[in-house]
């Protein structure tokens, strides 16, 4: 699932939003319910929980008001404008995961859906692909900081409009988020494409002076390797895994005792990220993957001038979402593309079907086998993408497997589960070596919150057809 709202705009709204003085008291009222859900207590009275959450904590009018109300519990829970003579639902509350026998209607007039289950509460927009959703794990909602974000998006003042035909704050925030994502995707792609052209032209000239066969192809490979490194740093900084301004500081560094090109500073960063150790005040994490291993062409034969280094460090100032990142990587597989990709791109919207396919298959296999823990479930799961391109579907499969395991085994170690999935469950192939490199990068970046990328991914995602059937005849094979 990809975020529905821009993290930058949410933070901006949090800084300017006026929260009620009794916010912490409201939070305390529902905190025990969140704990009970995490513990899967079947004794929860769902209507009492919905009343405490939406009326007492989030400020909607009580359903027990005789003239008008905003939370309606029957026949299905909804938020909107209700009276004895009017029904105008705006938000559907889906808690079917808590009550297996409950059938939740989905009226076409609704704009939002709030989904509640044992691990999380999620907010969806009815007219936006369900691959996008704002996901609030209950374990995080136990903290006041995450509750503030949930309150900002879902309270009465923001999720419902003031009047029936007016615009609500959350709807406006969604529109602004979509516009910002489109602008960011376009600007980032155009800037990367421009830098790639200059790099290829410069590298090709330098390689013609040497003894390299097919300088054109080698120049393209070297340029894309460098850009993948920059994209990795950009995303890792967005996720706060690498310190901010890493390349900015390297670009501005001045050695008073010796003239030193900026490219030498950049290469030092690449070396530290690949092999560990640094001379910076803040130690950098080590990423033992092929991306930062010394390349005999890029790192030993080629040179990047200061102006191109300046343009490269400008890329790392972007704040990119997962969706923008995946669309950008997919578009970069078309070297002759003239236009920036539309956001969200068609491939991104199709990921909803991929997520559903993986989750349905795994849940069915779980019911059939009844494994004791997540690792025993995953031992026979194989997901294969016979034409993986930039790895969008494999990334979605990874996240879907992780989400299903978190739901089925809430006490499992997500870090251990993520590492197991990356090492054992995902297979892919593509005839284009550049597509394989993009797929590796896409999966490495998706794994950053849970596991440091290593070369294990590269063993199962190659230009050769992977042997995903190894391990026995009872494998649960999911072909994307």
Strand count, sense and barrel status of the largest sheet are: 6 strands, mixed
Helix content: 40-55%
Low-confidence stretches: 99-105
Q: What is the count of structural domains?
A: 3
Number of strands: 10
- Run of helices and strands: HHHEEEEEEHHHHHHHHHHHHEHHEHHEE
Structure class: alpha/beta
What spatial form do the alpha-carbon principal axes imply? globular
Count of separate DSSP helical elements: 19
Read across the widest sheet, the strand sequence of neighbours is: 1-2-3-4-5-6
Termini separation: 17 Å
Describe this structure in words.
The protein is globular and about 85 Å long. The strands form two sheets. Strands 1-2-3-4-5-6 form a six-stranded mixed sheet. It folds into three domains: 7-166, no CATH class; 175-331, no CATH class; 350-479, Rossmann fold, CATH 3.40.50. It is 50% helix and 10% strand. The model is unreliable at 99-105 (pLDDT under 50). α2 runs antiparallel to α3 (46-57), α7 packs antiparallel against α11 (306-315) and α16 crosses α17 (414-424). The chain is built from 19 helices and ten strands. By secondary structure, the protein is α/β, with parallel strands linked by helices.
């Amino acid at each position: 699932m990809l975020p529905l709202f821009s993290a930058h705009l949410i933070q901006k709204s949090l800084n300017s939003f006026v929260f009620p003085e009794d916010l912490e008291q409201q939070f305390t009222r529902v905190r025990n319910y969140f704990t009970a859900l995490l513990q899967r207590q079947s004794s929860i009275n769902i209507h009492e929980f919905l009343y405490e959450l939406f009326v007492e904590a989030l400020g909607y009018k009580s359903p027990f008001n005789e003239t008008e109300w905003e939370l309606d519990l029957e026949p299905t829970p909804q938020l909107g404008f209700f009276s004895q003579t009017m029904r105008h639902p705006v938000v559907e509350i889906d808690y079917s995961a808590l009550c297996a026998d409950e059938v939740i209607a989905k009226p076409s007039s609704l704009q939002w859906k709030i989904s509640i289950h044992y691990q999380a509460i999620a907010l969806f927009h009815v007219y936006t692909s369900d691959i996008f959703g704002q996901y609030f794990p209950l374990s995080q909602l136990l903290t006041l900081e995450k509750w503030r974000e949930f309150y900002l998006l879902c309270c009465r003042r923001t999720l419902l409009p003031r009047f029936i035909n007016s615009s609500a704050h959350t709807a406006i925030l969604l529109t602004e988020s979509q516009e910002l994502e489109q602008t960011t995707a376009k600007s980032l792609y155009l800037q990367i494409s421009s830098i790639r052209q200059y790099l290829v032209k410069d590298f090709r000239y330098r390689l013609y002076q040497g003894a390299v066969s097919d300088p054109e192809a080698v120049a393209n490979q070297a340029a894309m390797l460098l850009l993948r490194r920059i994209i990795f740093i950009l995303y890792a900084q967005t996720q706060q895994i690498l310190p901010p301004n890493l390349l900015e500081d390297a670009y501005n560094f001045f050695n008073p005792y010796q003239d030193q090109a900026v490219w030498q500073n950049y290469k030092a960063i690449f070396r530290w990220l690949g092999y560990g150790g640094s001379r910076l005040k803040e130690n950098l994490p080590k990423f033992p993957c092929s991306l930062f291993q010394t390349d005999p062409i890029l790192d030993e034969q080629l040179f990047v001038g200061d102006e191109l280094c300046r343009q490269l460090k400008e890329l790392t100032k972007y704040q990119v979402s997962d969706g923008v990142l995946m669309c950008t990587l997919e578009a970069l597989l078309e070297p002759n593309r003239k236009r920036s990709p539309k956001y969200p791109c068609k491939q991104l919207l199709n990921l909803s079907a991929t997520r559903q396919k993986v989750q349905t298959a795994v849940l069915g296999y779980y019911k059939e086998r009844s494994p004791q823990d997540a690792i025993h479930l995953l031992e026979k799961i194989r997901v294969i993408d016979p034409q993986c391109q930039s790895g969008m579907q494999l990334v979605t499969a990874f996240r879907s497997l992780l989400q299903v395991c978190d739901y089925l085994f809430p006490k499992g170690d997500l870090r251990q589960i993520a590492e197991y999935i990356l090492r054992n469950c995902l297979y892919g192939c593509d005839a284009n070596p550049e597509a394989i490199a993009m797929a590796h990068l896409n999966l490495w970046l998706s794994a950053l919150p849970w596991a440091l990328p290593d070369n294990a991914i590269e063993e199962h995602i190659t230009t050769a057809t992977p042997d995903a059937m190894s391990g026995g005849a009872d494998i649960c094979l999911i072909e994307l």
